[in-house]
């Protein structure tokens, strides 16, 4: 039985989103009586977010499902500075044009998962460059500077970890937490925002923003963080040997996105169904209870439900059919990644690396030596093997049981 009276905190609790809340009773009471605008910030360092950000995006979706207002803050301003959290090195500088293009790409996913508009619970997307670029340096120092002590800033994990490892932390990045705190205060004034959410590594930054608004304006704000999301084997969510699992199709094909979810560890299935799908808790409990080979049914449901939300119904259906044809019928589904080897053909190692199946030619050689590579069902072990295909034909390349591609001329 939940301890909460508001739909919002009950929903977040039962689906596993809550790690820390600054004042759970206060937020619960507020959410039970009025629409609470809440925000999460996303930096625009790439044209797509990856799976590591999906739990935050889903939290904004839950906020809206519970009758509240999501504010998506794109960090057009803070991206120019760089968040030191969990980073060993400074972020490369992007131009304003790069940042604008990245924001346009990132918006696609939010438009699938949130309802935007002018209504009281409709989502809005704002760019913190709007107010951060207008700030005069002297004005910032005078109005905001007195509310931060260097002693306290040095205790934040994002700063401490870099200093402990004796890695340089620039003055530019040291300012990041001040700008993020200023964002919360500004959003409270502009949009009546009362809640900031984020990953557990953002706790210090969130509390900073609450404190700044309290000291400058007497506002009462709230913070809520999610647990640090790792897979059952301890890996960080959204990272694979082949690279980041991007949310946008332009950065990662639909089939590969679907496969990422289909291949999760058995132990993660229930948790991921609660966090990343809209299935009922009763249905999730039923799927989670499946055992042995049956658990694969639950993984297929997980893969299709997440792909449906992030990439759309058509992408999910096509990926699921492709997987069924590829694995069950030995055929080649239409949504598999494909590669043209050209008139001259390509060496098998180069093909594996070009597809992203292996990270290097050295890894390709090892996979070939292990007998893990098949071309139209025939095992290939010779790294010098030349793949050449006639104009009207195509061939199916497989690495192990899970990676497949179509090769054409």
From TrEMBL:
Homodimer. ATP binds at residue 239. This is Tyrosine--tRNA ligase. PROSITE patterns: S4. Its main location: cytoplasm. It comes from Qipengyuania mesophila. It comes from the Bacteria. A motif ('KMSKS' region) lies at residues 236-240. Pfam families: tRNA-synt_1b. The gene is tyrS. The keyword DNA repair does not apply.
